[in-house]
Amino acid sequence: MSALPRPAYDFAVSACGGLRTTVAGVQVLMRASGALWLEASRVLIVADLHLEKGSAYAARGQMLPPYDTRETLGRLAAEAEALRPDAIVLLGDTFHDGRSEERLAADDAARLRALAQGRTLIWVVGNHDADGPRALPGEIADELVLAGLTLRHEPQAGPQFSEVAGHLHPAARVTATRGTVRRRCFISDGERVILPAFGAYAGGLNVRDAAFAGMFIRPPLAGALGPHRVHAVGWRSLTGD
Amino acid sequence: MAEDAGAGPHLLPDRFAAWFAGRGWSARAHQLEMIAKARAGRDALLIAPTGGGKTLAGFLPSLIELAERPPSNTPRGIHTLYISPLKALAVDVERNLMAPILQMGLPIVAESRTGDTGISRKQRQRVRPPDILLTTPEQLALFCAWEGARLYFENLACVIVDEIHAIHASKRGDLLALALARLQIFAPNMRRVGLSATVDDPAVIQRWLGFTPPEAGEERAVDLVRGPAGAQPIVDMLLSEGRVPWAGHTAQHAMAEVYDVIRGAKTALVFVNTRFQAEFAFQELWRLNEDNLPIALHHGSLAAEQRRKVEAAMARGELRAVVCTSTLDLGIDWGDVDLVIQLASPKGASRMVQRIGRANHRLDEPSRALFVPANRFEMLECQAAREAIAENRFDGDAARDGALDVLAQHIMGLACSEPFDLLRLYDEVTAAGPYCDLAYEDFEQVVDFVSTGGYALKTYDRFRRIVKGQDGLWRVRDAATAQRHRLNVGAILSPAVLSVRIAMGKSLRGGRKIGEVEEGYLEMLDPGDTFVFAGQVWKLVAVTGLDVLVSPAADKDPKMPSWGGSKFALSTFLAKRVRELMFDEAHWQVLPADVREWLEMQKDRSLIVGEDELLLETFPRGRRHFLVCYPFEGRLAHTTLAMLLTRRLERMGAAPLGFVCNDYAVAVWALKPLDGLDYDELFDQDMLGDDLEAWLAESFMMKRAFKGCAIIGGLIERRFPGEHQKSGRQVTFSTDLIYDVLRRHQPDHLLLRCARQDAATGLIDVARLGQLLNRIKGRIRHAALDHLSPFSVPILLEIGKERSPGGAGEMILSEAEDDLIAEATQ
Question: With an 8 Å Cβ cutoff, is A235 touching chain B?
Fold first, then answer.
């Protein structure tokens, strides 16, 4: 018998395969795409798109396939199509580097503009894209408060209440006797949530890494992304790399 | 060669004849023939067993030419380039070559150059090239990417490729063939010499070694020189108390007898097929080692310095036995080995002959070898191998078409070396054996890939790695790009390795390094579990970053992960002989009584089928229904077959639950009966069409193959100059992400084609599966049984030892979720 109360997570699998839970009392839906959906306020949040990462590598001589931007925007468009949000928040590091916007192909720029059609597009800036877009539509913000949640790119140190952030690219690793699986994931202690990277070429950082230490007031819950659903995984099931 | 006998004395200069005589030798016929070939300017492939003076035969013509050369004060460049697939062999041959050079007082400088050679020596070799340079294919590829290459090799007279049988049918072989084509451009008169162990079909190697001069349009033929046959090896089989176990891979039952045999031998090499088996056998032997015999362990996971120690002790004659894997297959001369023991099945006749050749490097005395089969099917395999060896019949690698990712790496290297003309380069590349059938369109695609990545979406034109200049020639973009390429040369890919270190205190710091393990080796273990490594029992403490932390454990009964037989597949040739042996009842009398009884029992209770038929049994067991078939085509082809069969059974509504494979058989089980199906339809060749494609596209094997091709082809780099691991935060950037994106947006991309080719040949053996389906078409013999059959026992005993394949990832996550729910609701 443990003296401490167990963390009582409130989670349920939604019909869409997403995971319903609360952050600081606000109902949120973790989508299998890696986006966070605030249904009540009809806001869709995605973090770390890292658009034009492929061409950033190509400029340095590593010719990664140039299809990452269209892949990422295609997935975002599919989410917008499915959920019809009033606002889309890009939670920072939307571009991989300061020159990504120049390298953006015309049809990909058109895809981005289409996302801003008939709704608010908000660019929260991150460390990779500190200035926000130059020519593309949308509003630019360092951080914003929305429906009782604070949305910013880089999570602040120490436990936080009601924060939604990205930046760390959380990934969950689960080991069973039959093998190991490593997936991008949401990570939340019910007070704050860190989103997985949404970009096609964005890597993942194991949530057991020291970078996540001290951020949660109780052992957090990971929402690991599967092809069609989000799996809730407890802290004790997670292993380091 | 009628003139050889008469020409012999003239072929051998006095100094050389005296040297031979002084050592009580005379030059052998094949050595003289190699000199005659060199005098006539002919390319030659020498095929001879170990111990036949093969290496000396390769070098004699060069030594003579160099000895007869008038002295000169200016450096003259490399005369002879020797290529060995193994670093250690290059160093060893250097040592052996020094003997005749010193004893005859020849004015010849011979030096080795490998990845381990120090920087200063390498620089000196560039400024003052030795007369004979001994090196590896990777070092040669680096030379080809160097600006000074043309000048450096312009006086090259001869290239000797050693152990050619071990390298020609691989990506390293492709890379080497391309490098030879380049050398031939630098030095058009260069002669090619190949040295090979005995193979079934020398023509395959002759084609690889030969080349087609662009102007002539006709292949320059390589002459074949055969060494003496050598004494027939004596191969015995160890049957512990005359019995052979039903199943297993370790031969644990016979270990006491193996130990006794080692005690009776001067020095024994104990070959096994996997590192697990090596660890296991080593531990078992030491458990029995009451005499404290010096018995050592040698396999690829041990730290390099530990391996060097074992090799040195071996060379000094201090060891009585070494338990080893294929790391000791190739031709380093160990002197006093008088017995080779093969634990578990040999998998192929040629490999076995190579291994047997490690014993007794003298031609006139027979080598001694002992087979120790670990189970009954292996016993049949050992018998078939013994008979093949006695008849001098061998299996061999078939010819292969050169890989395009390797070509991409080579072309990038050439561009780093000097500008090239596209058409001339095509002629040069197609002169190389493995690339002689390369279509111009494919060649162009590879060049485009090297330059811009080869994408249908042309957005990278401004980032070209190689550019076409005003003069129409292609060259590398800048010096930095060239430097990065040189850091990434090579066609050997090692899986990610973790260091095994002793845990220090509670801080989870890593202490002394014991060795390295491949990623995935310890996946099945949890902290606290015990396992055997480097001959000792360890407890897994933690895995941190790239370190596996362990502590010594006193556990006498470690929790060992299962080992799934051999990484080598049973050769087609040997498989056929096993089927023939089983089919031919008169032949059974050579087998031990219990194996004979087992076959009789099988005949009684089920069926023994013809060698070109497929035996298929169905029977219920427990609450499940089994389908077991015995194609004898090796684990790889069987696993692919099982994957495809279960897909089909699923569609037929048979609800298959799982399968298990070994080198001999496939077993599938289901909830519903598996008899009464149309087996000809089930095994129809069309399973290699859409079913295969659908499965392959999703399989981890394609991703693994893609990663290999992406690294070799230069899409992603192994190393950046001056780049260090970022401390604290390591973001894994996986090639799987690239694979997924590329597959969706450009499924016909060059690298995906390469990956598919590699997966089909190396990882799933599609070709062999195709041959099997063709062979058994209309020849499936079905036995519907009430019980399991005697043949099915070994394969059924393997159930539960294997990891389940395919979409297990989702299940693992679902189970983790179930745990959480259980925890939350308890």
Answer: no
- Shortest CA distance to B80 belongs to which of B173, B12, B155, B184? B155
Q: Whose CA is closest to B151, among B189, B112, B121, B187?
A: B187
Q: How many CA atoms lie within 13 A of B615 on its CB side?
A: 24
Taking the Cβ of residue B698 and every Cβ of chain A, the question of whether any pair is shorter than 8 Å is answered with: no
pLDDT in tens, B329-352: 665 566 678 889 998 887 777 778
The single-letter code of the amino acid at B613 is E
Continuous segment of H or E residues that includes residue B161: strand B158-161
Structure tokens at B427: 């002629």
Tell me which residues of chain B, numbers 401 to 420, contact chain A at a CB-CB cutoff of 8 Å.
Answer: none
- pLDDT tens-digit readout, B221-247: 899 999 887 778 889 988 877 778 877
Dig out the tokens for B763 from the structure: 């990882």
* B208-244: burial string, b at 16+ Cβ within 10 Å, e else: bbbbbeeeeeeeeebbbbebeebeebebebbbbeeeb
Alpha helices, H only, chain A: 53-59, 68-83, 100-103, 106-116
SS3 content of chain A, % helix, strand, coil (to 5): 20, 35, 50
Is the pLDDT reported for residue B526 higher than 70? Answer: no
- Report the alpha-carbon distance of residue A216 to residue A173 in Å, rounded: 18
Q: Is B636 exposed, middle or buried (0-12, 13-18, 19+ CB in 10 A)?
A: buried
Look up tokens 């599609």; give the residue.
Answer: B766
pLDDT in single tens digits along all 241 residues of chain A: 334 444 556 788 888 889 999 999 999 999 999 999 999 999 999 999 999 999 999 998 889 999 999 999 999 999 999 999 999 999 999 999 989 999 999 999 999 999 999 999 999 998 877 788 989 999 999 999 998 999 999 999 999 999 999 999 999 988 765 557 889 999 999 999 999 999 999 989 999 999 999 999 999 999 999 888 999 999 988 988 7
Asked if residue B345 lies in contact with residue B381, where contact means CB atoms within 8 angstroms, the answer is: yes
What distance in Å separates the CA atoms of residue B116 and residue B516, rounded to the nearest whole number? Answer: 18
Backbone angles phi, psi at B539, to 5 degrees: -105, 135
Looking at B26-157, which runs of residues are DSSP E strands?
A: 44-47, 80-83, 110-113, 132-135
In sequence order, the β-bridge partners of residue B193 are B44, B160
Q: Are B730 and B425 a contacting pair, CB within 8 Å?
A: no
Q: What is the pLDDT of residues B706-724, one digit of tens each?
A: 888 998 898 887 654 433 3
Between strands B110-113 and B268-271, the pairing is: unpaired
For residue B531, list its beta bridge partners: B538
Best CA proximity match to B490, nearest among B379, B387, B410: B410
Report the candidate in B808, B689, B696, B705 with the shortest Cα–Cα distance to residue B754.
Answer: B705
A118 exposed, middle or buried (CB, 10 Å; 0-12, 13-18, 19+)?
exposed
Cβ-proximal residues to B466 (8 Å cutoff; 6+ apart), any chain: B411, B412, B415, B447, B450, B451, B474, B475, B476, B477
Compute the nearest-CA separation of B456 from chain A (Å): 9
- Both tokens of B701, joined, read 């094997």
B158-161/B191-196 β-pairing: parallel
Positive or negative, the Cα torsion across B670, B673, B677, B679? Answer: positive
Q: Which of residues 435-494 of B touch A (CB under 8 A)?
A: 449, 452-455, 457, 459-460, 463, 465, 477, 480-481, 484
Q: Please indicate whether, in this complex, the C-beta atoms of A231 and B455 are within 8 angstroms of each other.
A: no
Q: Which of the 8 DSSP states describes residue B537?
A: E
What residues 127-166 of chain A have any CB closer than 8 A to a CB of chain B? none
Contact predicate A164/A151, CB 8 Å: yes
Which run of H or E residues covers position B644? helix B635-651
